Amino acid sequence: MLEGRLAEKIGDDVVRIQRNWIKIIEEKRGKKFKVSDWRLMLKTKNDLEPHERQLKEVFDLYIVSANAGYDIIRGLTDYIYPQDEPWLEHYQTTAVFEILYEYDREFKRASTALVKTIDRSDDLIQKEVFARFYGRYGQTWIVDYVATPGSFSNLYKRILERVNMRPDYKWTFINAVSAARNTSYSVMFGSKFLEALNSGKSINEAIKAEKEVLKEMWLNPLETQVRIMKEVGHKSFDYERCIKMFKKKIYEATVKAAEAGVHYSNLSLIPLWAAGDFHHVSQTTYNLCKGDIEFAILQSLTDALERTIDNAKKDGKLRDPYKIPTWEVTASASAYIMRLDGFTSSMVADLLMRRFYNLILKDPKIFRYECMNEEFVNFLSQGEYFIEKPPRGLGRKVWNVNIDLSPIEKNEILSNPQHYSWPECPITSRFASLLRFADEPFHLISDPMVCLYATELIALNPGKPHLPYLFCKKCVSAKYLPFRCKYCLAEKEPQ
Questions:
Q1: Residue in 249, 168, 400, 228 with CA at minimum distance from that of residue 160
Q2: What are the CA-CA distances from residue 26 to residues 11, 33, 45, 437, 484 (Å)?
Q3: What is the pLDDT of residues 80-130, one digit of tens each?
Q4: Angle, in degrees to the nearest 10, between helices 152-160 and 105-119
Q5: SS3 of residue 287 by DSSP
Q6: pTM of the model as a whole
Q7: Under a CB-based contact definition with an 8 Å cutoff, are residues 136 and 367 in contact?
Q8: Distance between CA 80 and CA 33 in Å, rounded?
Q9: Mean pLDDT value of segment 21-43
Q10: Quick check: 1 pLDDT over 60?
Q11: CA separation for the pair 135, 64 (Å, rounded)
């Protein structure tokens, strides 16, 4: 009975934050963004309360971080330029690492040991920078939550095998170049190498330049992040002041959470999720959702999520807090919309994979930052599996919960593509709008929802690292490049 009430409480929390996120987009789409637009998201977070089985210190850190992120940036500016939006989720972990270095001197010494090993790992680094910019593994996602080929965490798993270090520290460092993103260089790996090579320097000189920033991001994360922001031309607000103020505001809550037994890997995630997911309310989101079909897609995904969870509660199927359908619903809904126009994830993968190799020939620098096309395709493929009839799929079910896709069928805009295309043959407009999310699929997946859900799970088991995941993602790319799997470390624990 207690488990059921807990699961329902978490289900209500994730639906509420998803619903309020969409409410903001509905009111503001097509308009000019203001930082104050984040207020409803902040209120949703402030209203959160832990269940008796959840660790209060996790929620305290989450709420303190959310308020700190809002108050600091609201005090520094009222507008975030579109080109600066990605960096809104890169300052939090930098601050957390600075705090942990001061709190735990052994952890600081571990970072020094990691840096010394990086200095001796030319063989691994050289191989991976070439692979990243010349397409050895096909499309990749640099900060993949699983150590897939081409991900930063894959490289760090191999580097850390050469270091004698506590396993919990290894988990933390690996997570910090994945979901947690210690400095923006976590999404920029290899760019210093490419920059040096293009300027006429030798390969050895280029590797040396790459290693310098790889070392500095651990030795001096705050200084490194500030320098990177200057290099990329960040101008929306004083970034250095933001990090220092954020560190000060979350210091006490971070230390209390650490003393309460929260794993360092989780500590690096909670502030990021609390203050970083505000970037989903932004100028680019408003611009993207100007289109009626684009907004209808997000709206129908939200409706499907709410109906699925409500139905599960009524049927008494929402019992296990670890088995609440969240991204599984949005993936199913996205795949269903894709199928309405006759497309499949394999078709999308083929299109984007061919384009990937052509873009590399055009200019490898295009991929110096985070590219999420691979995650978009994987997301659609997973959604197809959920909606396919058995034995090819789960038949619109996950954990014995029926996935309700009726909101898509009832959505007036999605049901009438002829209003947005040539009426005699409106067979591509819905897919074309869905494809606009390929560069930022986490609007579809819904970061605000999944980040809150993950935080709720961390509060249930704070001493166990939530990330990185240790399972095979069944990457769509592996269907085209099956030997890619030879380099995958997804299921291997940090050693």
A1: 168
A2: 22, 13, 20, 17, 41
A3: 999 999 999 999 999 999 999 999 999 999 999 999 999 999 999 999 999
A4: 100
A5: helix
A6: 0.96
A7: no
A8: 8
A9: 98
A10: no
A11: 42
